[in-house]
C-alpha cells in the first residue's frame, strides 16, 4: 500500500517536504539547513543533480526518511521563490545510494 498507509503519516511527511518552499537561494552550497531539516546534494550525480532532505522524526513507523528533490531553478510569476520538485520519499537503509537509485533520480 506504500510507505505511508495511514493518511496522517503521509500528511506529516508532506509537511516536512513543504518546508522546501523556504529554500535559500544558495544552490552553490553542498549541504545546509532548510527550516529545521538537514539537506545535502546527492553525491555521484552529474549536474543538474538532486538532493536529499533528511527527516529525523519517526513517521509511520519509519525512521531515517529521505525526501529526494530537484531544484528546477524556475521562478514562477508572482512567486519570489524557485520551483522545487519532490521526486521521492524513501527510507534510507545505508549511507550510499546505489547506481540504480542514481539512474532513477536522473
Describe this structure in words.
The protein is of the alpha+beta class. Helix content is 18%, strand content 34%. Strands 1-2-3-4-5 form a five-stranded antiparallel β-sheet, covered by helices on one side. The longest helix has 12 residues, at 7-18. The radius of gyration is 14 Å and the shape is globular. The mean pLDDT is 77.
Beta-strand portion reads 25-35%
Number of beta-strand segments: 5
Structural class based on helices, strands and sheet pairing = alpha+beta
Q: What's the pLDDT, averaged over the residues?
A: 77
Strand order, main sheet: write it out. Answer: 1-2-3-4-5
Number of helices: 2
Instruction: Give the N-to-C terminal Cα separation.
Output: 25 Å
Q: What order do the SSEs take from the amino end to the carboxyl end, as H and E?
A: HEEEEEH
Shape assignment: globular
**Largest sheet geometry:** 5 strands, antiparallel
Measured as a percent range, the helix fraction is 10-25%
User: From the alpha-carbon coordinates, what is the Rg to the nearest angstrom?
Assistant: 14 Å
Amino acid at each position: 500500500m506504500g510507505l505511508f498507509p495511514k493518511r496522517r503519516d503521509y500528511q506529516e511527511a508532506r509537511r516536512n517536504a513543504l518546508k522546501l518552499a523556504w529554500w535559500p537561494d544558495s544552490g552553490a552550497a553542498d549541504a545546509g539547513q532548510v527550516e529545521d531539516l538537514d539537506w545535502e546534494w546527492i553525491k555521484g550525480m552529474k549536474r543538474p543533480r538532486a538532493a536529499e532532505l533528511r527527516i529525523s522524526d519517526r513517521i509511520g513507523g519509519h525512521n531515517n526518511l529521505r525526501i529526494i528533490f530537484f531544484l528546477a531553478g524556475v521562478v514562477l510569476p508572482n512567486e519570489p521563490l524557485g520551483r522545487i520538485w519532490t521526486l521521492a520519499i524513501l527510507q534510507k537503509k545505508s549511507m550510499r545510494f546505489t547506481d540504480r537509485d542514481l539512474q532513477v533520480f536522473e
